[in-house]
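My hope is that you will study the record closing this message with an eye to the fold:
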Amino acid sequence: MEITELKKDLAATFRWTARLNMNEGVANHFSACVPGSTDEFLVNKSGVHFSQMKVSDLILVNKENIEELKKKPDLVDATAINIHGTIHQKVPHAKCIFHVHSKYATALSALKNPTLPPIDQNTMRFYNRVSIYNEYGGMGFEEESLKMAAALGNKQNLLMSNHGILTTGETVSDGFDALYYFEKSAETYLTALATGKELNVASHEVAEKTAQEWSNYPSDMGRAHLDQIRLILDKEEPDYQN
């Protein structure tokens, strides 16, 4: 994908996350590696609400400017540079990273046991496919970021206890689709828990089979999802492309 389309994809995900009320003030960060690189990435500018994010608000971070940017928190949040820069560098499959403190994922992260059980088709997508980082140690500066990268390992998703959710993808559409469905899954689980009734948890065999079916689904639903989001934004909020 050319970088212009990559930027439009990434900007669109900010706008849609705001529509879903999954953002938090002017905090939280999404990033995407420049094609062919693991140490050059785009990340959102500090202080811009997700609902206002544009292509021009994406800041390029690389080896040449990263130390200077760390001194300019008004341009790029220091936790964004640390968390995203470290994970991009240490976890090769994390080409795109989505980190939010969304309502249901964060509530799940606050539970003593934050494991997401396989209770429906969506939660089964994440069965044995989420790493849990349960040693929260602060805001996400250098030491904390290294621990997050190590905890993520070869998984696509990282639930950070007492913190929130981080999903990754080879593409923007992969990472955002995982974020969307993880939040839906956490909402389903916590809603089911709120009934006080016994959960109908699927067997390991069924949950693993369904997770594999999600992975092997014949069409690229994540790409189709983002394409439809962009079509809507092209009509209703075309300035995201500016």
Summary: The mean pLDDT is 94. Residues 3-241 form a domain with the L-fuculose-1-phosphate Aldolase fold (CATH 3.40.225.10). The radius of gyration is 17 Å.
